[in-house]
Design a protein that fits this description.
The protein is built from 20 helices and two strands. By secondary structure, the protein is mainly α.
Length: 603
């Protein structure tokens, strides 16, 4: 009788598991899902960036916040917005999965945009309007605690939503393609193209049309449109829910990395096998089969060899089935090499921070410069100050196909490399152009300030004088930022692709935090002994050009740091049998469950 009850319970458990198994084995629908996912990303991007891109102008013009404080708030907001994807990637991979993470992120973003819209609409949540003369004289009423509280809460919700959406949106689309099918893989390439094309179009729309409406028509309408966009994005996202494949969470990658360091430390007194040949040493260490088809075996390397001690096998370390008895005392060679990949990449990642410090100026001080310049294009049209930075985005968009279709084939003939130059060389070119853009910015600012001081505070120079530095910034981003994306996705282990996608955002976050710190330190240091600070509330009274030159000098020093890191960097390699392993795993996947490689190409 007991046996019958146990059998019945087992059948009940099996039936309970069937929906989950079916969900895992559901055939990916490919392009059936793409209209929903791409439309969601497009409207979400237009909505969130439609608020963030013009934040400095909103804080100064409508919230009567001082220029330096507004610059710091914008830097901190963008820094936090770009740092939270790291947490979002961790939560998605460890607990929620990409679908739930995206869903929660969309609702948080909607609430954040709605909150900002209310600060522009409700009289109780916005300060009294202050004219430009009062602003320059510092006589405007400061926003109340309630008004600032609602604004900061709304920006906080935007950072939470961005942290959930950014690392998951592109990989979730990749999940919908069966990479064991050749036709589906071709569809995946088209998905990448459409994803970036529509995202770029959304950014251009936000930085032109939405900013024009906000600045020249109404802040309430200008923020209300993104609110509607975000609401529409959520409806579209859930409309396609019946088609989606949900890849379950795979566990935290950080746990495996921590286990490598702990196991290596515990075995620090042991000696590695005496063989000089690293391939022979590999045979003497713990090296079980890799987990699933997404993880291709990495061979043992001699760099950071002290970590190899974590794979030394002692009596009692191995269970009868070949698994490790305690993962905090015995790690596989695969785990160790994955940890080494992260150690090698982090120093390169730091070099990108100062590159983005230069690029971050286009959303802060460059907008403040535009306030004091002639923004007219012809007698009837005036460019909003916040839209000036779209020049950088346009330069980036135009340069990438030129680089990909013209420059790469030409350089490939000289170097023999598939990409024309290596991944690190591409980043290095961006690091060279970045300080050059700051030198150009300094020269233009010197001319602008002289013109403004001789014309009552408003320069007669056209705002298009800012175009050369913005074009250089766009080209620097095309080399360094896009190079970073490609570098992370190719050099990170396959199951760390979500982390790879969030690492660029972390670099941008670090740049914004560094930019905030530099501005505060520069203001304090240069104002000593009664001197006028380089950075003042009225930029006509300061020395903003000196600040740009200072960032350029830091960029040059950062380039030499990058050269040192590049010299010692070892590119990730796969074992000789990796290609055959991929083919074998692809055949196995057709009979088991779906595993998707969540890799993202360069923009």
């Amino acid at each position: 009788m007991a046996a019958g009850e146990e059998g019945g319970q087992a059948r009940q458990i099996d039936r309970a598991r069937e929906p989950a198994v079916a969900a895992r084995r559901r055939k990916p629908q490919g392009w059936k899902c793409m209209p929903f996912i791409i439309a969601n990303e497009t409207f979400e991007k237009a909505a969130s960036f439609g608020v963030a891109a013009n934040l400095t102008t909103y804080l100064v013009k409508r919230f009567s916040i001082g220029q330096l404080q507004a610059t710091n708030i914008t830097n901190i907001f963008f820094a936090t917005l770009n740092l939270t994807p790291l947490l979002g990637a961790f939560i998605s991979d460890s607990y929620l999965g990409r679908f739930k993470t995206l869903a929660y992120g969309c609702f948080a973003t909607l609430l954040g945009i709605l909150g900002v819209t209310l600060t522009a609409s409700l009289p109780a949540l916005k300060p009294a309007i202050c004219n430009q003369t009062s602003q320059l004289g510092g006589h405007c009423n400061s926003p109340s605690t309630l008004q600032l509280g609602v604004l900061y809460l709304s920006l906080g919700l935007l950072t939470i939503g961005g942290g959930a959406i950014r690392p998951c949106s592109l990989p979730f689309g990749v999940d919908q393609f069966d990479q064991t099918d050749e036709k589906s893989r071709k569809g995946l390439n088209s998905y990448y193209n459409w994803y970036y094309a529509t995202s770029t179009a959304a950014l251009v729309f936000s930085m032109t049309v939405l900013i024009y409406i906000q600045t020249n028509i109404s802040w309430a309408i200008g923020f209300g449109i993104p609110t509607f966009f975000m609401f529409f994005a959520i409806i579209i996202f859930f409309a396609g829910a019946r088609f989606y494949v949900h890849v379950p969470p795979e566990g935290s990658i950080f746990t495996g990395i921590a286990q490598v360091f702990v196991a290596s430390f515990k075995k620090r007194g042991l000696n590695l096998p005496c063989s000089r040949d690293i391939s022979e040493q590999e045979l003497m260490l713990y090296n079980p089969p890799t987990r699933g088809i997404r993880i291709f075996r990495l061979p043992l390397t001699s760099q950071f060899r002290f970590l190899n001690k974590g794979a030394i096998m002692r009596d009692g370390d191995i269970n009868d089935d070949g698994s490790a008895r305690n993962s905090w005392e015995l790690c596989s060679i695969q785990q160790i090499e994955e940890a080494k990949c992260l150690i090698r990449i982090v120093p390169i990642c730091f070099s990108g921070i100062l590159c983005f410090v230069a690029l971050a100026q286009q959303f802060t001080f460059i907008i403040l410069q535009a306030f004091t310049m002639d923004c007219h294009l012809g007698p009837h049209f005036e460019i909003p100050a916040g839209s000036v930075t779209s020049i950088s985005l346009i330069a980036l968009t135009v340069f990438i196909p030129i680089y990909d279709q013209i420059m790469v084939p030409l350089v490939r003939k000289l170097t023999g490399l598939e990409g024309g130059i290596t991944l690190l060389q591409r980043q290095g070119v961006g690091l060279v152009i970045s300080p050059i853009s700051m030198v150009v910015a300094g020269l233009v600012e010197h001319k602008r300030r002289d013109s403004a001081l001789s014309n009552g505070g408003i320069s007669s120079m056209t705002v298009l004088w800012l175009a050369p530095q913005l074009v250089l910034m766009g080209i620097a981003e095309a080399f360094n930022a896009v190079g970073q994306i490609e570098f992370y996705n190719k050099q990170f282990p396959e199951h760390m692709q979500t982390l790879a996608g969030s690492l660029l955002f972390c670099t941008i976050a670090g740049a914004n935090y560094v930019s905030t710190a530099l501005a505060k330190i520069t203001t304090k240091v240069t104002a000593r002994n009664g001197n006028t600070s380089w950075l003042t509330e009225n930029i006509n009274n300061g020395k903003l050009d000196y600040y740009y030159y200072f960032i350029a000098i830091l960029g040059v020093l950062n380039f030499f740091y990058f050269l040192v890191c590049s010299h010692y960097y070892q590119y990730k390699v796969m074992s000789f049998h990796a290609e055959e392993s991929i083919k074998t795993h692809a055949k196995e996947a057709a009979a088991t469950e779906i595993e998707i490689v969540t890799s993202a190409p360069s923009k």
